């Protein structure tokens, strides 16, 4: 169970203005017209979440549209039996919650920081203004929603997969989605324990799965992360059992 680090201040109290480097790393800003971009940048707020802290909580009202600058997040929900289903991991560069912002409804899921994370957000009012005034922003949101739908359908499929190697492969492929997470590239900074939280397996079993995927040439375990060599192979998840040696630790 991921322990929650206590903090004496809230995400809102820790907010600050975005730096020039952080602004440059936000993909959708570059497609806006000058006046639209200026308004969006003026509304940007940056905050920091501790490991284990919730950024969004099921049942709470939406106030911001969020994006991850650095760190790693988990999107999940608890069912009536008290079991947790993980919908997706959110690596750096990912923006999330646009569906909730569009409907102005309470969150139906939780977003939790798996490690110390830096987030950017714009207010719900600015989000709605951009929808009303920016064609480029509408296109970005439409693409986000389309990819998110496919991601959640895949998450349901992954949740029913009994083969641990395939579960890890498909879960990793989702983290390398170039539309939702353009900042990831071919290397993702993630530990085996963090991946275990996202996949719903033990750290030991994740280690074994990574060794299998590495032996098949789909990825390479590097210090502090994973390098994808064959994204399509991870998406298809067609891996046969072979004699494995433990993967090198990414932690």
UniProtKB/TrEMBL annotation:
A Pfam family recorded for this sequence: cNMP_binding
Keywords, ordered alphabetically: DNA-binding, Transcription, Transcription regulation
Highest taxon in the source lineage: Bacteria
Residue ranges of domain Cyclic nucleotide-binding in the record: 28-148
Record Gene3D superfamilies: Jelly Rolls, Winged helix-like DNA-binding domain superfamily/Winged helix DNA-binding domain
Keyword Aminoacyl-tRNA synthetase in annotation: no
Listed GO CC annotations: cytosol
GO MF term (any one): DNA binding
Protein name per its UniProtKB record: Crp/Fnr family transcriptional regulator
Gene source species: Comamonas kerstersii
């Amino acid at each position: 169970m991921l322990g929650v680090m206590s903090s004496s201040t809230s995400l809102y109290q820790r907010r600050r203005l975005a730096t020039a480097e952080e602004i440059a790393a936000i993909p959708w800003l570059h497609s806006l017209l000058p006046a639209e971009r200026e308004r969006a940048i003026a509304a940007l707020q940056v905050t920091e979440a501790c490991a284990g802290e919730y950024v969004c909580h099921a049942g709470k009202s939406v106030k911001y549209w969020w994006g991850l600058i650095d760190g790693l997040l988990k999107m999940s929900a608890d069912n009536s039996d008290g079991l947790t289903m993980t919908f997706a991991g959110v690596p750096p560069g990912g923006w999330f919650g646009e569906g909730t912002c569009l409907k102005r409804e309470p969150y139906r899921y939780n977003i939790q920081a798996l490690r110390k994370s830096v987030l950017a957000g714009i207010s719900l009012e600015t989000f709605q203004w951009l929808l009303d005034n920016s064609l480029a922003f509408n296109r970005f949101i439409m693409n986000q929603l389309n990819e998110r739908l496919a991601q959640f359908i895949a998450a349901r499929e992954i949740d029913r997969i009994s083969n641990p190697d395939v579960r890890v492969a498909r879960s990793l492929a989702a983290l390398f989605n170039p539309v939702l997470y353009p900042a990831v590239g071919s290397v993702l900074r993630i530990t085996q324990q963090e991946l275990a939280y996202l996949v719903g397996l033990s750290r030991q079993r994740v280690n074994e799965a990574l060794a299998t995927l590495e032996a098949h040439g789909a990825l390479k375990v590097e210090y502090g992360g994973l390098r994808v060599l064959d994204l399509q192979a991870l998406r298809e998840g067609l891996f046969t059992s072979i004699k494995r040696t433990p993967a090198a630790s990414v932690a």
